[in-house]
Records
---
Amino acid sequence: MDDALPRPFLPQGAPADLAAGPQQLSHDERLAIADAVLSWLRAEHGDDLVAVALFGSTASKSDGPFSDVQMWSVVEDRAGPRPDLEWIWGPGKLTVERMTVTQAITRAAWVDGRWPVAQARFVRARPLWEASRQQGFVQRLHAAAADLPEAARREAAAECVLEMYTALGKLRTCRAGPKGDVVRIAFDFGEPLMRLVALRHRYVFGSSRRMLAEAHQLDGPPGYQPLLERLAAGPYRPPDELVGAVDDCWAGVITWAQDEGLDLSACLTPIHQPAGVEGPPEPPADRDELGLGPPPLPAAAAKRRRRRGMFGRR
């Protein structure tokens, strides 16, 4: 593209905007910001742009007055990977996750213990624009992300249970000796518990802000609802009561999971990341196999996952 031609500019903030913190915006004002970013992406990438979508609370129209704007864009592989964008744009914050087609398909097919949260960006995406040659691309990513093979679901559930086990040990240590941050650790137990229950129901949360409210609507193990109510409402004193609520919930988790068909035997074998592997495995090199052209994504764009220790973010 000729640099001399007029082109849209990304909305930017000023030092005073940062100091003021998030300011109120309406849903329509957030959509206007997203439209400005879309114009910039179309000018920046030209014919390489494949699709642009909103995700998060703005996409689901559940955004509050101080919510962020979250978007992702996809370009053809020939354009190469681009860094994600995150910045303050006046009254709020904007995030743009930028992916190539291959990266988007790989991420949509990813399954781990954070599946009920992480895949919302595809399952609950709201298309803003698609290239005519790739109509339905956002929906195909949605279908790939929503697919949850049983073997991957079991291993993802095991990751959640191991996180809960770690938090439970810390809580019991707090009860046995010097008091630590019981409330924070209880939330460290509750968050993977909610993901575990969501995996049981193959449910993807709409946004992190709505996670606790949506988790209340799902059936879980004995003690699940009382623990969520305690975490949501407080008060958190005395700490022993909160630790007791976590213990009561844990007492029923394993039996419940087994009764619900979640085989947790993976918890009893080393979960590891193969040497030299970082991040999601690369998809096959054959573009036709992945459906990178106009045809719908085939079954070959199957679930891919790695086994990893300590569940770091991808």
---
Amino acid sequence: MAESFENKNLEILLKKLPDTEGPQQIELLADLTVAFREINPEKVIEFGKQGLELLQDSKEKKLKLVILNEICRAYHYLSKYQTSLEYGFKALELSNASNDDLHKATAINRIGTTYLNMALFNQALECFMQALKIYENIGDKRGIAGLYINIGLVCSKIGDREKALEYYSKAMRTLKEVNDKRSLAILYNNIGSIYNDSKEHKTALEYFRKALEIKKKIGEKFRIAHTLTNIGTVYMDTENYEKSLEYFFQSLNIQEEIRDEYASVETLRNIGYSYASTDRIAEAVKYIQQGLSIAKALKVPDLIMSCYESFSAIYKKKKDFKKAFEYYKQFKKLDDEIFTKESSRKFNELQISYETEKKEKESEIYRLRNIELVKTNENLTKALAEIKTLFFM
């Protein structure tokens, strides 16, 4: 495999580190947190904390904001959500104090992403809507597209697939305009998931393969694993279980290597379901139990809920209806707590507020432009009158 530009750039940064000091060293450490973003979250935290230590007595704020936001993201990838939020709120506080809208939007977006993984959908949506307004105000098209993707993901999570596709469509137009292939791969992956949920497996597979092709070129293991799991899900849903297991185990190997515990729960659950569907019940229970243990350690309700649902299905297949019913009750209890009508109502309420504010801003811009045009016309009329006076004198 040819070495990517990003890997060469990373090597250059690492070679420079021992020979730098002072402000240059801090800048280099900040660059390393960005360079390791999709490769190794532990390295992001290691270099980031070194940078923060050197910045303790410094008035430099932009580099500190970069580092805080990257550490927030790294802890998110490691499924350490409370720590992720701590760094996210530190970044938000500093960006408010320094009137830095770009880093403020980044912090709010990353806080929202962490809330999303914690199944706190209302809080996530509020963050995404706030960040979207900021990106629109500063004209950051990549940021706007990323927020469309995240809002679409919330819609998908609360079961509004039509609204999710609407936001994904907006994101696709913007991403093609700015040629952001990395984000386009994420978008293809999310669209594929919606089509797979709608039983349109052929279309889903097309989108997943598009996503995988881009991700392999970029070399992001975290996202490659995610798409491999999704391709496995298509084969599982079409009852090609041996093929699904092939993709699930490829994904699991990567997830264990990069310590992506959150994503591994879904993969383990899918492995269990594939084994159960081919009557290998003992193996199914083993993998789902492994997933449930991780989900409980992470304290993520929707992951725990999905494992309960899988156990209920397996014990029903074994005709152990008592256990099947016990797990179903635990699943239903969590399901009722997480996916309430309140989530849907909150989304509609926030969207209406966002659209109203946007229209009000557009009306104000239109009004101000009209005032400018009137003034311009008055000035032109006055100038013409002066010219005529001079001409006829």
---
Amino acid sequence: MQKGFVGILTAALLAAAPWGWGGLWAEGHPSFNQGYEQGNPGGAAVLLSARKEETVEQDKDGPAFFGVRDIYLALGCRADYLDGVAAADGSGADLTERIMVDDSRVNPEQEGTYQVTYRVEDDFGTETSCFAEVTVVSAQELQEMIGNRSISADEVKIIGAANPYDIGASGQDEIETALEEARPAIVQLYHQGESSYSAGSGYVMEITEDAIYICSDRHVVEQYDDWEVYFYDGTVVSGRALGCSDSYDVGVVTVETADVPEELFGRLGTVHIDREYWSGLNDDRIDVGLLRVDRQGGVMHTSLGILLKVKQYFAWGDNRDHTEMTAKLEHGDSGSAVFDGCGNLIGMAYAYSTSPRRYWCVPLDGILDCYEEITGRTVFVY
């Protein structure tokens, strides 16, 4: 048994004395601080590669298109080619309702390459046109393209993929790069009290039409019903605690999708979960790390280390197996997503023990089981 378990790594400022969870709080506990501070997965997919994405003009005085970009459409689904597309004349007058779309050469039921054409004419008879390529692939291949970062939802519109928001994983094993590329899926949870604050980390597990689901540790989430959720660019949105699990230390906070600014929403992503890859890990000494974002859109700190054991005996928490690593944990690291050098989610920062000093994470399978228990939803995994 590990001696001197320090426990949960929340940056909560406690109004009470330094004791609490499981009788294991100590004055050196990191939570104690003196200061104030969708688709169609079985089918195929259609790829529309817009030849001109942002603004398309024939001449400086003619009409211009806005929002024409690549669209990836699963077989059997139907695309609204005008969704998000607008047009205006040289003086800025709206011509969106005049846009004509020719998709007669597109057959979304058969693999192949096609074209869709956009046309618009202003009051002076000046016409502007542009086209997009349409390529049909299987839905499985479409999701694989998202997973290996050939395409991403912040650059293109994807319809019919199981998870179009997946940040994907790289073929390059470089932990610092992987952490930077994971930032669109990382958040800070913050609650300001009258004389103290609580803060912890979190990460986006799932994005739906109605809500964004954020995972963190239970000992973070259970403190309050309401949270300020700071996304990676510093944007803050109100969130609500959805629930917590009594198995592993896992909690979920939700944000209403409608409350997220459209520009930011297009750049958000979910963590990449490859359960098959994770299940094959055991004593593999791979690079791992975490990154915490601050409330101004910057990086608070990173911590790098080595994976020691993907499932290891843990003397607390009902003796459930946890992931052990060498990446050091600091105040407020609770709930941080721990990634490998390619960007795969490995676990969630949880606690450390002393004598000897050891650093622990909730394992990936525990995260997934608890997420389903709390939300009633099954997140997409590779």
---
Amino acid sequence: MPTIGLCGEAHTHSAQLNREFGVRSILGFVSHKPVQVFPTLKVIGGMTMYVAFVDLLGFSSAVESLSEADDVSFADLVSETTSLGSKTPYSYHLSSSSVRNLYDMYTEFQRECEKAAWVLSEYHSHVRFSQKMSAPDAQGDNFSYKAVVFSDSIFLAASSLEPVIDAAGELIANLLLKKIPSRGSIAKGSFRTFEWNLKTGQGASFTACAPFLGSGVIRAYHTESKGPRGIRLLINKSCWQDVQALDSWALLSLSPDEMSEHWGHEVNLDLYGLSGNANITLLQMMAEELSNLVPDNIKARHYDPTLSAYSRMAAVDRDQPRQFTRSDWRDEF
């Protein structure tokens, strides 16, 4: 399944940038003599953005548990899918159940990431349409967005909070409805990308660089990886007031023992992440089903906090005053 780069931007970096700024990058080569990459360092975008980071839970350990043969089989399946588009390779049916289950999780995650990235694109269309109606002669717009997928995680970034919280919430909820656990976070800060650089070496060897950096990247990643456990969408302290201003009902306080100087709230997935006839009760049911399939230590670490959070979401008083500035932009599509 191909990696998404919906912003249509390529990136490149140097080892110096990696050392000095903690650049997050993808770098690979299979050769004793790889081709060197000399960066152009063309910065693409530098404004303050809202950044969501969503990560699959359990994917790394599932890959590590594969036998050597299954590890190769899984990689081959993904490679074949990339070549064949969305068509399931014939070799899928000849693979072990472990490989098929992991492949199903991975490809479903990729499909849901495409939907999440499309939410940002739809919002951009809304912005352009609104601007066209209010100022027909205006050129361009001030909305920017980026979606970057690598392996089992995705960064969603935009200059407006609304599409980011919609896209990330829906991604986590939709995955859970398919019994795929994930966790995410939202932060505010810089999100800078550079032009990608890909050069081939001898045979199948290559060197590829795809860096992106910024305080938004660091805050979102840190909150997801170090914050409270569970299938949730956490809010970094850098943007909790913005979430409150967007929709006061969307802001849910964490339990006292989960709070820190870096986070104290999460997104109410009963408002952001569900559509149609789905509701928080359905998410609770899916989480409970998954919790019955895992060892007690995993249940206590991930699913008990999840179910506790969902109970707080379900208990939100809908009669309390609601202050919000969010639009009805989804109704246009």
